[in-house]
Amino acid sequence: MIKNLGILIAFYILSISANAAEWSNIPFHENAQNKNEYVFSNSAAKQISYEIKAKYPSLEILSFYKKSIGNKWSICKGKEQWDSFGDLAGESPLFIHQLIQYWVNYSENKFIMLAIKYESQGSEYLEYPDTNIQKVFLVEYKENDLSQVLKMLKLEC
User: Fold this and answer.
1) Phi/psi at 32 (5° precision)
2) Which side of the chain, N or C, has fewer Cβ within a 10 Å radius?
3) Which of 4, 7, 9, 10 is nearest to 145 (CA)?
4) pTM greater than 0.70 (yes/no)
5) Residue 157 domain-assigned (yes or no)
């Protein structure tokens, strides 16, 4: 939970400091279900989210976006490993298996965060999720001081 709280606080700070942006045309995966698209009211970020059926630890979505995001974006160094943790923040306790990847576009002062996760019932440790529903969140941010954001998130891009 603390790990996610830091990310949420960082993105809140980012969202209040950016100007309106033009957004990239980043596609949904062909097997996407329950698709949503949302531009934050201050126009600092755009999010797409959806679900696919994929057995853990599928990296199909990560591979899809590595091919789909485009040449003007640079992928940030990441471990491409799943993290897992208990989450007591919501109404019901969950155990989360999650992978996060970032991309940056220096010429447009933007970055992308891709979060892929499985949510299992209960907060007790599970080696494998109790579901094959993979939740996908892709958020594109516009940031006036991109270098400061990358430093704050400890990203090498």
Assistant:
1) -65, 135
2) N
3) 10
4) yes
5) no
